């Protein structure tokens, strides 16, 4: 049965000094943590590597003292050019970075010298709905031999009419294993399959165009799934009787912004976290919106 998992933590010590807590400090079982700000106090490296459109130069960018992306450095480097995300670093310490080496398929973070932002003015990458995506490295086992998984993202999806995928792990090709999609402009769903080529099941909840915190959880062992949108949860049965997911690795990396090679999302993503357990949706919503 899906439970509450980890909750939000308190101020912690790193390197012998007290550090103000970051949004995801209280979650101790993250599989990957991606954001355009410092999500975890333990992360001290860069946030991303960007590619400049004018000359394809690559440069890494970190955060300021307050944990926000160093956009001054990013914009100074970009100049009048656009900048695209080549690597989005995993802040969990697990090395599951999101990459795309194909220039034409990289999401954009600076548009002709102007930062791409969310509704609050914070950095958020733009996906074009054609082929833009980022693929998680070292993550072929995310949905493998799992009792429970959690997928959470803060995003704005604008092409809900085509049923795009915000995040998707496939067995191979377009055989969805687990993920979050928007099957209509007014709904979101989370679910997938327990075995390759098998029946699929989804929990469906209300959503809309614009910025939302989407959280999908699958309890393979308990045969339930749920989708939480901005704190409102809808649950459904998931392929009873319950059993651990198949012990087979995925053939393709999990994808941010599409279902491997189809149904690419148009819109923006600012944060994505994954876990191989059922995390608390209330705490996750707070962290995603924090």
Give me the secondary-structure topology.
Elements: E1 12-14, E2 17-19, E3 30-35, E4 48-52, E5 58-61, H1 71-78, E6 83-88, E7 98-99, E8 108-111, E9 114-115, E10 125-128, E11 134-136, E12 148-157, E13 165-170, E14 176-184, E15 187-193, E16 200-206, E17 210-219, E18 224-229, E19 232-237, E20 255-256, E21 266-275, H2 281-289
Antiparallel strand pairs: 1-2, 3-21, 4-5, 4-6, 6-7, 6-8, 7-11, 8-9, 10-21, 11-20, 12-17, 12-21, 13-14, 13-20, 14-15, 15-16, 17-18, 18-19
Task: Give structural attributes.
290 residues; mainly beta; Jelly Rolls; 2 domains; 12-stranded antiparallel β-sheet; 7-stranded antiparallel β-sheet; 2 helices; 21 strands; 6% helix; Alpha-L-arabinofuranosidase B catalytic domain-containing protein
Q: Calculate the mean pLDDT score and round it.
A: 95
N-to-C CA distance? 27 Å
Portion in beta strands = 35-45%
Q: What is the count of β-strands?
A: 21
- Radius of gyration over alpha carbons? 18 Å
Organism: Ancylobacter dichloromethanicus
Protein name: Alpha-L-arabinofuranosidase B catalytic domain-containing protein
Structure description:
Helix content is 6%, strand content 40%. β8 (108-111) and β9 form a beta hairpin. The chain folds into two domains: 12-134, Jelly Rolls (Sandwich), CATH 2.60.120; 139-289, Jelly Rolls, CATH 2.60.120.200. The protein contains two helices and 21 strands. The chain is mainly beta.
């Amino acid at each position: 049965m899906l439970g509450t998992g980890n909750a939000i933590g308190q101020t912690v010590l790193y390197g012998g000094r007290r550090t103000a807590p970051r949004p995801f400090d209280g979650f101790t079982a993250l599989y990957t943590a991606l954001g355009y700000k410092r999500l975890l106090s333990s992360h001290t490296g860069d946030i991303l590597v960007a590619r400049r459109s004018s000359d394809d130069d690559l440069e890494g960018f970190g955060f300021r003292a307050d944990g926000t992306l160093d956009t001054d450095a990013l914009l100074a480097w970009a100049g009048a050019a656009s900048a695209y995300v080549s690597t989005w670093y995993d802040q969990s310490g697990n090395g599951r970075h999101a990459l795309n080496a194909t220039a034409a398929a990289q999401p954009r973070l600076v548009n002709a010298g102007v930062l791409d932002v969310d509704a609050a003015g914070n950095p958020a990458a733009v996906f074009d709905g054609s082929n833009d995506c980022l693929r998680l490295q070292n993550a072929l086992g995310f949905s493998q031999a799992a009792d429970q998984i959690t997928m959470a993202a803060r995003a704005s999806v604008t092409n809900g009419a085509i049923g795009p995928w915000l995040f998707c792990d496939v067995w191979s090709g377009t055989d969805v294993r687990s993920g979050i999609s928007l099957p209509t402009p007014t709904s979101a769903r989370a679910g997938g399959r327990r075995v390759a080529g098998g029946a699929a099941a989804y929990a469906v909840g209300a959503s809309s165009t614009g910025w939302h915190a989407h959280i999908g959880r699958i309890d393979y062992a308990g045969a339930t799934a749920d989708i939480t949108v901005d704190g409102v949860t809808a649950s459904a049965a998931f392929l009873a009787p319950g059993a651990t997911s198949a012990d087979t690795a995925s053939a393709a990396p999990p994808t941010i912004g599409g279902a491997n090679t189809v149904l690419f999302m148009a819109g923006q993503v600012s944060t994505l976290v994954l876990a191989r357990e059922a995390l608390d949706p209330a705490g996750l919503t707070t962290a995603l919106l924090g």
